[in-house]
Specification:
mainly alpha; two-stranded antiparallel ribbon; 2 helices; flat
Length: 131
């Protein structure tokens, strides 16, 4: 059977060639997009490395300007003592904050309860007046 001078088996071959060509174009397009995204990410990583190098150089120059001084054992002990006292104070403050929060909740609930009781009494009075 001839359609436009092409036989049906030739049409299938032509159709198959078009499909394969379309798939190849799509695959090449996806590959190109993937490569461009990868190169952008590589450039971002390179910029981050350069930033880190600049920060490291800056820290080195600052360290040379202000050399680290060694502390004596007494000074180290004093620092540790102060840090321990700070931890103890923080713990005490946390404990007091929790107690205050709990007591505030209790007070709020007591106030809410008394308000609700007064409202119930008022409702009872109003109901009695209506009857």
């Amino acid at each position: 059977m001839d359609i436009f001078g092409v036989t049906i088996p030739d049409l299938w071959v032509l159709f198959l060639i078009v499909i394969i060509g379309t798939v190849l174009i799509i695959v090449i397009g996806i590959w190109a997009i993937h490569q461009s995204r990868g190169s952008v990410r590589k450039m971002e990583i390179e910029v981050e490395k350069q930033k880190l190098d600049l920060l490291a150089k800056d820290l080195d120059t600052r360290a040379k300007e202000h050399p680290f001084t060694r502390l004596s054992p007494e000074q180290i002990q004093q620092v540790r003592t102060v840090e321990d006292e700070n931890e103890l104070l923080e713990l005490n403050n946390y404990h007091k904050e929790k107690i205050i929060e709990a007591r505030l909740r209790k007070l709020e609930n007591m106030v809410r309860r008394s308000k609700l009781e007064r409202m119930l009494l008022k409702l009872d009075i109003e109901e009695k007046k209506v009857k």
